[in-house]
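Q: I'm teaching a short session on how sequence maps to structure, and I want students to see two examples side by side rather than one. Could you give me a first protein with its sequence written out and its structure tokens following it? Keep the formatting plain so it prints cleanly on a handout.
A: Of course. Example one:
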Amino acid sequence: MNNYKNYKVMLQAHPQRVVFEKKDGTTRIMRCTLDPEFIKSVADFSEQEKKRNTNENVIAVWDLEVAEWRSFRVDSVQSINNLTGDELMEILEEGCAASS
């Protein structure tokens, strides 16, 4: 299985911390997912899935911290790991506080 497919499976199974190099050369840490349970609305997820071309060089993901779609290039990934329970709770609590 190639990295694209591996990353997609990981992102669909559990929120991840993805460290990658942006086009400008800076390093970005993004907490993201493809698990519909964490995406703003399932309708939004379905619409994004329809729009997305299957480009195995880029993965579009739901950024948990800004609650918007973002993407990264597969070849720029430095690491990808499951978010810890504490990290996930922190993001969810911040999201609840922001929407109050």
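Q: Perfect. Now a second example for contrast.
A: Example two:
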Amino acid sequence: MIRELRIDRQMRVAGIGVSGQRCGVTLIDRRGEVIRPAIIWMDSRSEPQSERLRACCLEDVLAQNGKMPAAYNADPLEGARMREENVLRLSARVLEAIAD
């Protein structure tokens, strides 16, 4: 990697950072532009929707995707619809990052 990056071997490495992203949803408009910041796994505003899914149709959800409904994976779009109707109306696509 040092060769690929053409780093001067005389320089000392002070640190290396590693990052990752868990589950998240990003709304994209018709031009392919991001409409709002991603709704990530730590966003718990959709917990009421998650509770409804667990109460009414847990077996169906588990059969569909094998995951317990939680605020980050149950229905962030429903939560966005309730809180940011104009943003959801502009959305043409939804990009979802999923960690298994």
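Q: What should students look for in example two?
A: Point them to this: DSSP finds four helices and three strands in the chain. Also worth mentioning: Helices lie at 2-5, 47-65, 76-83, 85-90.
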